[in-house]
């Protein structure tokens, strides 16, 4: 061991995520949208003034913050944007969770909550979901350093209504409550309407799923202006320019086209319901997903075997082998009708 | 004070950087390149396939890493890319500086080194530059947690040759030495040629200055493959997708056009030398800058007064009021010949 190696940061070795690049593949493993971004995005990209790239981007991300504020009918000082919701969530953990008491999030939820808690040395507890993968709200009726809930939750897909979220807020008025709504547009109702009543509520969303822009890395959060000021202060304190000019410029276009957005969502939700019906016919149980994926377990065929069989046919889905509670489940992104038909055919031939 | 406020992260209040947006302004305050990106960037942007934006970017940034590896004649596993060199430097601090001994960097240098050290709770010492703003290499002949040098240094503009860098490396073989070369293309020689001999050397560069791409947020570092693996492991451990698809795609074009790059650099270096001559005629002393800015002090007129006078004429330059050693210096970005002539005229009328 060379002397300088002893000061390396110790992290779990990196296992590359599966991002296959085959022309014929059916990619249902990372919850991407099967439809392209709004047509205005194409136009904006063609008209983008590249000469301006010599200048730093606006560090306040004003045009994109403004577009989001208009869309959600809030003030600009209630909106923060970042490089994907991962950037926004990480920044929120760093900004708001500086207590000796553990923060709380479910045992089965977005895996990066634990990662950021470890990174920033934030103590945490992970109350178990019940046997139906529902959050037990009483587990959050106690002193903590903060609360983080994905709603709909991932990878379960299960959505809790705003009465539930409000109950959690009522019981946690002394800490920040983050509601991560990456998938809320696929059938849920956003907690953004609660931010005026609960000044400790921060709602996080993303352009990666419903807005077909995973490739641009745009996320945002909305909350009381005092929270947004803190997160801005923290961000500016160590990295002033994160959002590049193209993200800011074409992000605005992705927010504008409401008709395209709604049509896109309707197609995905319809296909999700059809997928659940078809998978049940094939011997699966599925959660009541309000996302762009289904979470499904077959009555006999192990998830790992199904995943491998599908992979051999260039159909990629996701499983969670390392977590015993859900190791036999598949998370399958809702693709186009044609893609899902190919999936059903492959599974039918294997299990029937 | 509301209860949840006590867990906010404490940071210095944010003072917005001056990013004026006037059509007629002459912007010489943030070291941007006065010339647009390479012509291939425009073409690439127009041809960009926006439909692909629905997909996550390649988390390995393979096309851009490959283009940089080709350019610098190194292996792909010796290159890491990030969202501007701030992102790369911050990640390097987090990855390599986990010692109880202080890291070392000069008292006058890029202000963010101190910020990241504080953010990640890394102890540090800041040996003073000598009276000519030169690094005293003997200050770095001691046990430490690591060394960080900007070369050329900022805001002094002073470059030390590779013999100097190699001497620092010889005396610091047990820790990581970071050489931040944001400005090296404006007349310096890169330490990249030393990475095979010094496995503990990490060289950081950026697209923001010489490549006219501040607006795209692209930075990179080059070093021994073991260092690059660690920084990748750390990055992947908490944020897999930071580089958006447009950055990766058009970043490649900015690296390709060597003729445009060299022509652009030659114009700026020529204008820098003329600027130094002109400013001396007007009563300034200037450092021997090897960057795209000059660092200048007037014999009688205080920097703050000059800055204010110029601002009133829509000419923006930078000073460093909070640091007594350099509070009377101006940092003036090298713009076009016309822009610099306007600056000289304004100063001439004021000081003569």
TrEMBL record, chains A, B:
Location of N6-(pyridoxal phosphate)lysine modifications: 209
Superkingdom: Bacteria
Keyword Transport: no
Pathway participation: Amino-acid biosynthesis; L-histidine biosynthesis; L-histidine from 5-phospho-alpha-D-ribose 1-diphosphate: step 7/9
Domain Aminotransferase class I/classII large: 24-347
Catalytic reactions on record: L-histidinol phosphate + 2-oxoglutarate = 3-(imidazol-4-yl)-2-oxopropyl phosphate + L-glutamate
Cofactor: pyridoxal 5'-phosphate
SUPFAM superfamilies noted in UniProt: PLP-dependent transferases
Matches recorded under InterPro entries: Aminotrans_II_pyridoxalP_BS, Aminotransferase_I/II_large, HisP_aminotrans, HistidinolP_aminotransfase, PyrdxlP-dep_Trfase, PyrdxlP-dep_Trfase_major, PyrdxlP-dep_Trfase_small
Pfam families: Aminotran_1_2 (PF00155)
Gene3D superfamilies: Aspartate Aminotransferase, domain 1, Type I PLP-dependent aspartate aminotransferase-like (Major domain)
Entry's EC annotation: 2.6.1.9
Cytoplasm as UniProt keyword: no
Single GO molecular function: pyridoxal phosphate binding
Biological process per Gene Ontology, one example term: L-histidine biosynthetic process
Key words of the record: Amino-acid biosynthesis, Aminotransferase, Histidine biosynthesis, Pyridoxal phosphate, Transferase
EC supergroup of this enzyme: transferase
Summary of subunit composition and partner proteins: Homodimer.
Similarity-based family: Belongs to the class-II pyridoxal-phosphate-dependent aminotransferase family. Histidinol-phosphate aminotransferase subfamily.
Protein name: Histidinol-phosphate aminotransferase
Lineage, broadest ranks: Bacteria, Bacillati, Bacillota, Clostridia, Lachnospirales
Gene: hisC
């Amino acid at each position: 061991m060379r002397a300088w190696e002893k000061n390396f940061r110790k992290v779990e070795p990196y296992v590359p995520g599966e991002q296959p690049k085959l022309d014929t593949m059916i990619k249902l493993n990372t919850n991407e949208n099967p439809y392209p971004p709004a047509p205005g995005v194409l136009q904006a990209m063609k008209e983008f003034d590249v000469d301006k790239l010599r200048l730093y981007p606006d560090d306040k991300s004003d045009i994109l913050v403004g577009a989001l504020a208009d869309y959600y009918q809030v003030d600009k000082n209630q909106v923060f944007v970042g490089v994907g919701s991962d950037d926004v969530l990480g920044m929120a953990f760093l900004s708001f969770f500086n207590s000796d008491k553990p923060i709380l999030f479910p045992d089965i939820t977005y895996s990066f909550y634990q990662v950021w808690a470890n990174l920033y040395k934030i103590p945490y507890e992970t109350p178990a979901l019940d046997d139906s993968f529902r959050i037990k709200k009483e587990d959050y009726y106690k002193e903590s350093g903060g609360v983080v809930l994905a709603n709909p939750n991932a990878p379960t897909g299960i959505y809790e209504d705003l009465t539930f979220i409000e109950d959690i807020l009522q019981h946690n008025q002394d800490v920040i409550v983050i509601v991560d709504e990456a998938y809320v547009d696929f059938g849920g109702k956003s907690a953004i309407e609660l931010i005026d009543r609960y000044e400790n509520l921060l709602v996080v969303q993303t352009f990666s799923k419903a807005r077909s822009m995973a490739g641009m890395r745009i996320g945002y959060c909305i909350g009381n202006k005092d929270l947004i000021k803190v997160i801005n202060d923290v961000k500016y304190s160590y990295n002033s320019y994160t959002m590049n000019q193209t993200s800011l410029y074409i992000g605005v276009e992705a927010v504008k086209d409401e008709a395209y957005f709604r049509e896109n969502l309707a197609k995905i939700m319809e296909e999700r319901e059809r997928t659940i019906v078809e998978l049940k016919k094939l011997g699966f149980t599925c959660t009541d997903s309000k996302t762009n994926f289904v979470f499904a377990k077959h009555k006999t065929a192990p998830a790992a075997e199904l995943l491998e069989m599908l992979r051999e046919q260039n159909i990629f889905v996701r499983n969670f082998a390392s977590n015993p509670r859900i190791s036999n489940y598949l998370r399958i992104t809702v693709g186009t009708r044609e893609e899902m038909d190919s999936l059903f055919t492959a599974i039918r031939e294997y299990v029937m």
